[in-house]
Predict the 3D structure of the following.
Amino acid sequence: MDISSSTKLYGIFGHPIGHSFSPPMHNAAFQKLGLNCVYLAFDILPQNLSAAVNSIRQLNIQGINVTIPHKQDIINCLDEISDEAKYTGAVNTVKNNDGKLFGHNTDVGGFLKDLEVELGIREFSEISACLIGAGGAARAVLSGLCISGTKKITIINRTKIKALELANYFLKRFSSIEINSADLKDHSEIKKCLENSNLLINSSSAGMIGHDPLNIPLESLPKNSCVYDLVYNPKETELIKQAKSLGHRSASGLGMLLYQGAESFEYWTNKKPPIDIMKKALGNN
Ligand code: NAP
């Protein structure tokens, strides 16, 4: 990569940021398309977020991805946000248009794209989904499911009040969808939810390296259902192993990571992202 005075700068804001897979993925894409651009990771403490966002304008940074813990707080620092970002209440991609900063959420499209590619789900009117988790990732998944007209969604969380609040938030915006909430700790309730579902999505941190695995009665999920785990580290979680052994179609969150990155890349550059190259760069992590 040749850095020159006309090299364009992109990057990611987060804290901590050392774990991010995005720099190799975007730099591989820039290199493949011969774009004079570079993507760096910036470790931004919460108290420095507003100054860091101003630096996007001052330094003419072209685009930024945003990750934990800044996805919600950055909204107040931007000029305009997309509908996906509004529903989700979070921004993961910022585009600098001559000093005007636009916020978007490509986790929503990344999730939907991976459901289509890996699990063949395009039509949502017969989908009854159980969604585990009620944090930032759950909001992106819910936006995608609601925008796509999913028939029924049950949000299941360890802290039930958060699931209830999230259900009420999305019901106000998508009143035609049946949205319920349940307590992850109530096994008999979870068993019933799973029995009446054909898609299980884990958007909680359970199963991630350093966290306990997800503890649910997966055998209650009807045969030929689909299981999607947003966790991508490890690449195959206990949930995915169990889903495979029960014969369900399943996929991990690595594809969502890929497609959210691809959508950000296209949003910034207006160029078709080189998916295979980006996928290979992710696989090397
Ligand atoms: P977050 O906002 O901190 O929310 C974490 C959620 O996980 C909360 O609902 C929390 O429940 C629940 N949780 C944490 N530990 C748990 C456990 N041991 N058992 C059951 N539930 C537990 O985090 P996030 O941003 O939503 O991220 C969640 C996961 O999604 C992470 O693993 C992240 O890497 C992954 N993710 C993947 C992608 C992708 O592209 N594939 C994108 C975004 C996020 P409480 O409310 O009870 O605390």
Q: What stands out?
A: The chain is about 40% helix and 20% strand.
